Amino acid sequence: MTKVSYWYNGKLILGDRIELAINDPGLIYGATTFTTLRVYHHSLAHPLTHWDAHCARLSHSLQVFGWQFPDWERIRYGAEQLLPSFPVLRIVVFPDGREWITGRPLPADLSERQQQGIIAWLAEVSHLRRSLPTYKTGNYLGGWLALQTAQQLGAQEAILVDDQGNWLETSTGNLWGAKDGCWWTPPIDVGILPGVARSHLIHCLEQQGLKICQVPWNQKLVQEFDAIAYTNSVMEIIPIHTVITADQRFEYRSCAGGLAPLQRLFGEYQK
């Protein structure tokens, strides 16, 4: 059996078990904040790794929650110990400043998803939402349950909605749409995560002078899109060609259509 390693509280540990106190709030309440990043070319300095942006996300959450800041140099050192073996790192910080870093491979079917797109299920139930949605906390139960249900129904992702039925985000990323020569994404104030990949795309599109429409995705708007996708730091851009609901289906163009310019914004940095 192949041994795996992870970094916890200043130490590189070989194994697949972590020891936590039975009254640890991270264990009992999911009281942690985390970020997941893809390390490009085994380098934290690569432009698409967005190391500083991920650390800033952690720092902002810790400041808002009033938690202790970690040893940032130790976090970077721990990440560097894992990055030769793993292209994806998940960095967790506990309320008392302890750090926990794990690694994993990219999904085996990532290229297929990027090229062919996926099916998403619309989670039209109020409890299937993320807790404190503008932050990444260890309490991800709502999103996790939505994804499990989607997979049971033959979909690969779940789209979360608000009380009015507006589409918010997927269980693991931000939504994007193409229509009328404009790029559309729900605004942060509707209760979504300000994703690192989302911020990267907005910055690139603005630099090119392209129009971005940040408005709520109501039932009328979602039927007008030519193409839609979701983004996150690991998967980059994944087209959604079909959205299934309890009583209808939404069909969209594949990535060969209007989403290709967004995908090129990632590809240009990887040459």
Automatic annotation (TrEMBL):
Belongs to the class-IV pyridoxal-phosphate-dependent aminotransferase family. GO terms for cellular component: cytosol. GO terms for biological process: carboxylic acid biosynthetic process. It comes from the Bacteria. It comes from Coleofasciculus chthonoplastes PCC 7420. Gene3D superfamilies: 3.30.470.10, D-amino Acid Aminotransferase, subunit A, domain 2 (3.20.10.10). PANTHER family: AMINO-ACID AMINOTRANSFERASE, AMINODEOXYCHORISMATE LYASE. This is Aminotransferase, class IV superfamily. Pfam families: Aminotran_4. GO terms for molecular function: transaminase activity. Keywords: Aminotransferase, Transferase.
